[in-house]
Amino acid sequence: MLKQVVMKFGGSSVADAEKIKRVASRIKVARKLGDHVVVVVSAPGDTTDDLLEMAHRITDSPSERELDMLLATGEQVSIALLSMALHSFNTDAVSLTGPQAGIYADANHTRARITKILPTKIHSELAKGKVVIVAGFQGMNPNQDITTLGRGGSDLTAVALAAAISADRCEIYTDVKGVYTADPRVVKEAKKLDRISYDEMLELAGAGSQVMQARSIEVAKKYNVELHVRSTFLEDEGTWIVREVRGMEDVVVSGIAFDRNQAKLSILEIEDRPGVAAKIFGALADVRINVDMIIQSAASGFSNDISFTVARTDLKKAMPILEKVKEELGAKDILCEEKVAKVAIVGVGMRSHPGVAAKMFQTLAKAKINIEMISTSEIKVACVLKEEDCEKAVKVLHKAFNLNSKS
Amino acid sequence: MLKQVVMKFGGSSVADAEKIKRVASRIKVARKLGDHVVVVVSAPGDTTDDLLEMAHRITDSPSERELDMLLATGEQVSIALLSMALHSFNTDAVSLTGPQAGIYADANHTRARITKILPTKIHSELAKGKVVIVAGFQGMNPNQDITTLGRGGSDLTAVALAAAISADRCEIYTDVKGVYTADPRVVKEAKKLDRISYDEMLELAGAGSQVMQARSIEVAKKYNVELHVRSTFLEDEGTWIVREVRGMEDVVVSGIAFDRNQAKLSILEIEDRPGVAAKIFGALADVRINVDMIIQSAASGFSNDISFTVARTDLKKAMPILEKVKEELGAKDILCEEKVAKVAIVGVGMRSHPGVAAKMFQTLAKAKINIEMISTSEIKVACVLKEEDCEKAVKVLHKAFNLNSKS
Questions:
Q1: What is the pTM of this model?
Q2: pLDDT by residue (tens digit) across A303-331?
Q3: Taking CB atoms and an 8 Å cutoff, what residues of chain B touch A55?
Q4: Per-residue pLDDT at A1
Q5: Best residue of B58, B75, B110 to probe chain A, by most A CBs closer than 10 Å
Q6: So where are chain B's domains?
Q7: Which residue on chain A is closest to B102 by alpha carbon?
Q8: Is A7 helix (H, G, I), strand (E, B) or coil?
Q9: Which of A6, B125, B131, B301 could form a disulfide with A162 if both were Cys (CB 3.0 to 4.6 A apart)?
Q10: b or e along B190-224 (b: 16 or more beta carbons within 10 Å of the residue's beta carbon)?
Q11: A4-175 has which CATH code?
Q12: ipTM, interface predicted TM-score of the complex
């Protein structure tokens, strides 16, 4: 029986005619191996930014529905050009927009969720032997409007399609070779991982790894879609993101992630009564500010201090809201530390190897790096520290957990 | 009862953010007058050419289906930006692609015909008080693919929509002030016409006038859609294109059109038997070469000469076909005169004023301009002449038929 494969190419892979042709020849090879191929593609290069700029030359606050109408053209350009390139290589292909491909989404413009996929058209085109090229990042809402899926939307399209057509694998082609033990731009000894579990990848994404967005990995995990993250321009295998298998726990720490775009906020001496946290974080959620680590510490018997981190880019939006909350709750003060970073070690091996957190803290202490906040999960330990210490922290941890010597 | 108006803006009217805002403020004024407004818009400025260039960087012969997928993004950009601009002027608006607007077309990619319009969505959005902004030039074929409508496609969208929603008028906004007695770039005394009949406008378009394509005027005539061709950037009335009314015949010649892009071909000494013309023009039609004037003259008792004109840009494509036809028919020779032009005088008044053709020939003779071919209709006389004589011919005719003195 024919295998089905979904191949996803990001915007940098289709940035110009030459790159589009290279991608097409790569797809042609996959097709020749006899697989049914569905391709998902992003907008070329800087197209999305260019379109956003056009919108902002018209108005500071463009309607989100119209923004989606505008941005969706980017992927439509990619699919048409890529399909032409395949034809010129004598490979039959057909392009489909998100709506044409049967990708249904909710009505949250600019950040819609996929609600269902009806791949009737995809199946019928595959049955004709065609490569089906689907516009990533977009779907159709119940009002038949075009909606876009927000950050990482094309990955999400690819993974969700792979689930919908029960693809044997989903290949994410990108400008890096795969998932590394740490960002190779920071740690030159960082090694490419051959495979990693969904849960580890989720933790790495949550801790700042840019390779894939958490939402796509969640869907892959839910529907058991095997992901293969690899380079567009190299033949080498990349990193497989898969269900956890025996042997993975032998490695204590699989990877280290960090996020420099963090700021720490503390609200001091809030009255200790129910509903206080809900008030603070509800107000932030209302304006869509994601709060990451939260620590509540009792300052006295009757009041608390609450500290938490937000993306530094959200700070300007967060401050007036917190000032208002401070007044309402009668808190004493708000402290803001603008330049902090988060560093996390991740590995399913932590579950069976005690003392990992302690080793992390000792390693940082030895390097004279102060830890400001700590948060842990079953397979992750994350620390907030001064941004200036971030790079050093990643390097010493990479060495301490023997990642430098990984094969 | 509210009036319904369709306003169509060409690509040069929405070429950049400033122009889009000006168009939006113009639409806002129309909406404030209380009319229901449907707007049809083309791709911004050079977008279509840019997209074509992208396609040709990929392949010399792009698939027409994919070309339509690609080109349709141009208008989608326009509708989104124009809708944003209206929102920023506090005017509620919604953009719709051709398929969303219910415009159905046949499967002739890059030159589809509109087969039907189901304006359900347009009506429901108008009923909410919104300005409905529809992407011109595009529709959906029975296979749910995007098709484009070819040259003049956005005008066609506007006129067909006006017919489908029984609009009170269809305003074609453009970079000229209206329809002139002759091209004002050639005849500086040319005057803007206040109104002209569908039939006259059809003849002018057929004879080379660039203001509107014949196919849109045909639809307007068929469904009795009143057209108003006017400037995007001026408040002044332009030219109304309407059903013929009493009084129009008082004017003998309404306008003069010319087409410099013509070439004359003659096939000499073809055997005089049935099916010869069908053979020649069938072969040209097969490769979509439009033939304009055709003259068949008996050279002897047993053979004919056939002369005809084609667009000069089609000459290269026509020659090998004609060489083959020549062999098959045993004709003696093919003559080609590359640089000819067509000049036509048009007016419904001709029907009631005899001697118009004679006056045209005398005028040209007096100016020492040789006439190579002649073709007439009830309301038109057209002559083929050397291209170098074209401008002079238009000028002397404009004067001879008293068009210089029109108010």
A1: 0.89
A2: 788 999 999 999 999 999 999 999 988 89
A3: 80-81, 84
A4: 62
A5: B58
A6: 4-175, 256-400
A7: A144
A8: strand
A9: A6
A10: bbbbebbbbbbbbbbbbbbbebbbbbbbbbbbeee
A11: 3.40.1160.10
A12: 0.88
